[in-house]
Each structure stands twice: as structure tokens, then as C-alpha cells.
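Session log. Operator J.P. requested a structure for one protein chain; no other inputs attached. Running the standard single-chain path with C-alpha cell output.
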Amino acid sequence: TLIGDFADPHAFQFRGRPLAFVNWGSSIICYRILLDLISFESSYLEVPGMTLCEKNWQPFEHEGELFFSQWIMPNHKVIRCNVSSAACEDAFNSSTSLGVDGLPGSMQTEKMHGSTPYVELDSNHLLAAAHIHDEHLTHYW
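Structure written below.
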């Protein structure tokens, strides 16, 4: 999906403002962009040490700060991004164990990626979808 030259947008609200996390570029040179969906102002998110194009981050707001689940399994890695400066940093990294029953054996050790932004179920729970794919991107679960 494209919005202008941006690929794979994930729309969400932060402090009541509609934003989107998008990618721009190719798999070799990729920029992660935070896009304001009202003004269309964009900021390049600065993530130290990241070179690959990652497009399935799951945004969520906690205590007035913007976070993204970057990976879900085997480790749940969360980064914190400052909307004003566009600087991001590692916030949390914990091991996870999610049920993979029913997946082909070769898929049970693949990394689990995010998919949809989180929605708040109640004050203690967020819900989102995730997916696993093989290295050739031919099978998704």
C-alpha cells in the first residue's frame, strides 16, 4: 500500500492526533518515518544501530509516551520514540513464549512480527494481531 512514496502505513492515534508509521526507500536503504495525518509533516525516526527496513512495528501510547513493539517473539523488543525529536531508544527487551501449535514445524522457530496497531481493551490490556512468515515470504501465518 502506498501513500505518495511511503509504503505499508500503520495509522494510530497519539495524544489524540492521527499519525502513521511508514517506510520510505528500499530494502537496502530504508527510512522509518512518522507522518502526521493532518498536516502531512514527516520526521525520520532515528533508531541507533538499525539498518534493515522494518515495517511491522506496533505503536502504542503509555503514560504520554510513544512506544513501538519492534519484535514479538522470541524476544519482545519495545522501543520508545520522542515525537518532538524523532529520536528512538530501546525501552524493554524480554523473552516471550507464545503458542505455535498448529504451525508447520519449520515455522515454529521463526520470528514473530507485528501486524496491526494495538487497541485498548481496558486499562490493563492491549490487543493486536501478529504474523510469522518463512524467509522466502511465500507462507504467512
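Operator note: The chain is about 0% helix and 50% strand.
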